[in-house]
C-alpha cells in the first residue's frame, strides 16, 4: 500500500480525537501561544510516519525532565493508535513505515485498546502477540478486529481520569528552551537526528572539561594565594622580631671584685635564618647557653568564620512562577502560601509496589490531589503524582517517600503559581527501570 503522508487536516482530526485540555496544558491559557507555536512547528505539512517518529525521538532525547519525556512518549503512542484506528493500517505496515520494532508497535496498540475494552484482555493478548517478523498477527488491522468481535471505534483518545491531556507542560522552564532549540533544528535543511545527538554529546563533554578546568584553576589560585600569604606574613614577623642583650641590674653586687662595666644595649634585628645562627655571636654566648634551653614549640590557631545558616528558613523564599490571584480560579485558588514547588524523580524496578507504599504515605500525611488528577496514575514509563501536602508534615512526608526507592529531589521557584495556604505542592515521578 501507498505510504501515508499527513496533512494539516489529519493533524486537526488527531487533535480533536485526542481531546486535549488546553486550559491545563497552557495554565489557564497563559501559555497558549507557546503551545500553538509548538504544535504548528512539530506537526508540519506532508510528513510521513517515519518523519514524525524521528521528531518524537528528537523531543524525547532533548528534554531532561522526566515529566516532559513521559508526555512526548504518551503523544507518540496516541498518534500510532490514531493511525491504527482511522487509517486502515495493519500492525506490520505501521512498523515498516515507522521503522519501529513490530513487537513495540503491537504492545502500544494493545495497551490502548485494553484501556478502552478491559473485558477483552484475553482476546487482545492473543491478537497482538508478535514474536518475530514472520508472525501472522502482523496482518491484523482494526477493521479485522471490529469484524471479529463487533466493537465500536473509540470516539476519544483520552480517558476521563488520564492526567496527560491536562499536564502543565508549558509551566516547566525547559519547555521554552526546548521550543527555541526545536525551531532552530527543524528550520535547518537536512535535519539529521544522529548529528544532533552527537552535537549534544559533544557539548556535554565540553561543559565537563570546562568545569574541570575551572576547578583546577581555582585550586591553583588558592594554593598560590596561601603560599604568597605565608611569605608575606613571614616577612612581617621577621621585621617585628628584635633580640636585646639582657641587663642583669638585679644581681647582688656585694661579692663583685671587679667594678661593673656599663655596656651599651645591643639590638639585633634578624630574619629567621639569622635567628638560627644567633649562637655564633660571642656577645650573646656570654649569657646564653643553647645547651641549657629548649626551643619553644609553634602554636597554630584556627578560626571558623563560616557558620551554617538556619536551613528551616530556606522554604520561605518566593519562587519564579508566582501567579496573580486575579487569574487563579477553580482548584488553583492559591491567593496565599509560598511559591516553591518540589519535584521528586524516583527510579524503581517495581513501580506498582512503590506506588502502593507512596499511596499509604499520601493517605497517612493527608495529601490531596491537585485538581481532578488521581495520585499514582500510570504514565508511559512509570507512575506520576501531582499533590498538595500539609506544610507542617511536608518534611516528614518527603523523608519517608525518599526511603521507598532511589530518588533525587529538585526544588523549583515559580512566578505564576502559588501553593494553597498551609500546603506544599509536590510532583513525584516514579520511573520504571
Features of this protein?
single chain, alpha+beta, 2 domains, 6-stranded mixed sheet, 15 helices
What's a concise summary of this model?
With 433 residues, the chain is of the alpha+beta class. Helix content is 45%, strand content 11%. The protein folds into two domains: 5-191, no CATH class; 315-432, no CATH class.
Would you kindly provide a written description of the structure presented here, covering whatever features stand out?
- With 433 residues, the chain is an alpha+beta fold.
- The protein has helices at residues 8-18, 22-25, 32-42, 49-62, 66-86, 91-98, 102-116, 121-127, 142-149, 173-187, 193-240, 272-276, 282-285, 351-364, 394-401, and strands spanning 5-6, 47-48, 243-244, 267-268, 340-348, 368-369, 377-379, 382-390, 407-413, 423-432.
- The strands form 3 sheets. Strands 5, 6, 7, 8, 9 and 10 form a 6-stranded mixed β-sheet that branches.
- The relative contact order is 0.10.
Got a strand count? Answer: 10
| Helix-strand sequence | EHHHEHHHHHHHHEEHHEHEEEHEE
Give the CA-based shape. elongated
- Calculate the mean pLDDT score and round it: 77
| Category by helix and strand content | alpha+beta
Question: How many domain regions?
Answer: 2
Helix content: 40-55%
Strand percentage lies at: 5-15%
Detail the poorly predicted runs.
282-336
Counted by DSSP, the helix tally is 15
Largest sheet: 6 strands, mixed
Rg, rounded, reads: 37 Å
Ends: how far apart? 38 Å
Amino acid at each position: 500500500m501507498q505510504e501515508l503522508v499527513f496533512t494539516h487536516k489529519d493533524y486537526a482530526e488527531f487533535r480533536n480525537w485526542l481531546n486535549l485540555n488546553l486550559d491545563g496544558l497552557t495554565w489557564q491559557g497563559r501559555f497558549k501561544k507557546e503551545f500553538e507555536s509548538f504544535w504548528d512547528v512539530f506537526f508540519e505539512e506532508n510528513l510521513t510516519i517515519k518523519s514524525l517518529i524521528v521528531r518524537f525521538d528528537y523531543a524525547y532525547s532533548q528534554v531532561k525532565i522526566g515529566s516532559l519525556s513521559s508526555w512526548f512518549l504518551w503523544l507518540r503512542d496516541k498518534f500510532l493508535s490514531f493511525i491504527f484506528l482511522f487509517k486502515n493500517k495493519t500492525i506490520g505496515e505501521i512498523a515498516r513505515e515507522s521503522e519501529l520494532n513490530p513487537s513495540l508497535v503491537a504492545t502500544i496498540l494493545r495497551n490502548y485498546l485494553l484501556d478502552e475494552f478491559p473485558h477483552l484482555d484475553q482476546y487482545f493478548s492473543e491478537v497482538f502477540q508478535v514474536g518475530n517478523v514472520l508472525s501472522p498477527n502482523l496482518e491484523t488491522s482494526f477493521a479485522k478486529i471490529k469484524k471479529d468481535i463487533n466493537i465500536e471505534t473509540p470516539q476519544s483518545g483520552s480517558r476521563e481520569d488520564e492526567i496527560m491531556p491536562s499536564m502543565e507542560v508549558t509551566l516547566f522552564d525547559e519547555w521554552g528552551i526546548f521550543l527555541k532549540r526545536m525551531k532552530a533544528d527543524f528550520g535547518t535543511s537536512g535535519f539529521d537526528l544522529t548529528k544532533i545527538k552527537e552535537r549534544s554529546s559533544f557539548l556535554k563533554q565540553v561543559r565537563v572539561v570546562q568545569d574541570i578546568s575551572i576547578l583546577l584553576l581555582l585550586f591553583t589560585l588558592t594554593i598560590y594565594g596561601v603560599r604568597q600569604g605565608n611569605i608575606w606574613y613571614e616577612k612581617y614577623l621577621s621585621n617585628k622580631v628584635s633580640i636585646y642583650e639582657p641587663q642583669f641590674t638585679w644581681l647582688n653586687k656585694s661579692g663583685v671584685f671587679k667594678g661593673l662595666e656599663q655596656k651599651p644595649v645591643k639590638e639585633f634585628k634578624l630574619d629567621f635564618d639569622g635567628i638560627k645562627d644567633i649562637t655564633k655571636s660571642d656577645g650573646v654566648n656570654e649569657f646564653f647557653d643553647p645547651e641549657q634551653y629548649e626551643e619553644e614549640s609553634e602554636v597554630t590557631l584556627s578560626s571558623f568564620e563560616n557558620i551554617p545558616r538556619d536551613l528551616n528558613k530556606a522554604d520561605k523564599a518566593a519562587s519564579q512562577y508566582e501567579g496573580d490571584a486575579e487569574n487563579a480560579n477553580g482548584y488553583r485558588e492559591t491567593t496565599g502560601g509560598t511559591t516553591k514547588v518540589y519535584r521528586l524523580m524516583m527510579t524503581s524496578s517495581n513501580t506498582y509496589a512503590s506506588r502502593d507504599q507512596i499511596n499509604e504515605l499520601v493517605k497517612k500525611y493527608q495529601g490531596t490531589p491537585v485538581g481532578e488528577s488521581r495520585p499514582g496514575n500510570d504514565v508511559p514509563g512509570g507512575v506520576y503524582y501531582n499533590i498538595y501536602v500539609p506544610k507542617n508534615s511536608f518534611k516528614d512526608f518527603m523523608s519517608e517517600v525518599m526511603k521507598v526507592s532511589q530518588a533525587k529531589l529538585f526544588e523549583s521557584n515559580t512566578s505564576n503559581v502559588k501553593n494553597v495556604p498551609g500546603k506544599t505542592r509536590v510532583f513525584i515521578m516514579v520511573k520504571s527501570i
